[in-house]
Amino acid sequence: MSCQIDPSTIEATIAFHGHSCPGLAIGIRAAEIALRELPGVGQADLVCITETDMCGVDAIQFLTGCTFGKGNLIHRDYGKMAFSFYDRKDGKGLRLLFNQQARGALDQEMAALMGKALPTEAEQQRLQALRAEMQNRMMTLPAAELFAIQPLDQAPPRPARVLQSLACEDCGESTMESRTRRFAGRTLCIPCFARIEQKI
Fold it and tell me: What keywords are annotated for this sequence in UniProt (predicted)?
């Protein structure tokens, strides 16, 4: 079944992101599936773990209300187009892994054009047409063709906590306690630790 989110909400999502693209469409569909599979979850109880930092994460923020600031959007930099969603209240969760085959035959031509250092005007126009076609494909394919959908049985991540801040003993800047490092008996922020400890 194609995307069931109303067009005005999709337009608002595009405005939030700044442009329309296939990656954003993937995020729209992931959010749609999560909201359908975890109905009635309040914004404070819905959690998303994203394994990518691509365009689709903006759609997930806009449509689900999961944000870094609230502590219910967690980025794990795995480079995978995968999104896990949890309901903290009942512990139910699912992981959506994008199916690369969903891109179809358009993918190779798009990749070739995107890889050109100096594309001609005709190539740029063709690339724009392919991107629009790919975006339409992402919005109309059935969810089962877009994602491998796996139920999750592990517990959802704990809610965000306010932690003590400590002063870095090198630069003096206030740093969340859990992000400090100890070195030679001193408490350091991550950048100072990395500069002093040469193994990193």
Answer: Metal-binding, Oxidoreductase, Zinc, Zinc-finger
